[in-house]
Specification:
It is a single chain. The protein is mainly α and 101 residues long. It has helices at 2-11, 14-21, 31-54, 60-89. 71% of the residues lie in helices and 0% in strands. Helix 3 runs antiparallel to helix 4 (60-89).
């Protein structure tokens, strides 16, 4: 039990917290991730609008078409994000300037 108390005391030191904060986790903060998310957001917005539009009288066929176009845009967003990551624009990619931020 005493060793548990000592290890907890050494974990809660300012130096240890600073060291943990220096660790780069990634979280997808890269041009590839942002591009993927923005394209997929546009596709989701179009599909959401089309879902409501298709429920109004006389617009079922066109609304359904717009819905599937939005789904297609979301798939394109995934592909674009994957391609950008592969060519070096992902987290830690070769095309990004690593300046420590």
């Amino acid at each position: 039990m005493a060793s548990d108390t000592r290890s907890a005391a050494t974990r809660n030191t300012p130096a240890n917290h600073a060291q943990m904060g220096d660790e780069t986790i990634g979280h997808g903060n890269s041009p590839a991730a942002w591009t993927c998310v923005l394209i997929m957001l546009a596709g989701a917005a179009l599909s959401s609008f089309a879902y409501i539009f298709a429920s109004t009288e006389g617009n079922h066929d066109f609304g359904t078409l717009l819905f599937w176009v939005g789904i297609g845009i979301m798939v394109v967003g995934l592909i674009v994000g994957f391609v950008l990551r592969k060519i070096g624009y992902g987290v830690g990619g070769s095309k990004l300037k690593n300046n420590g931020h």
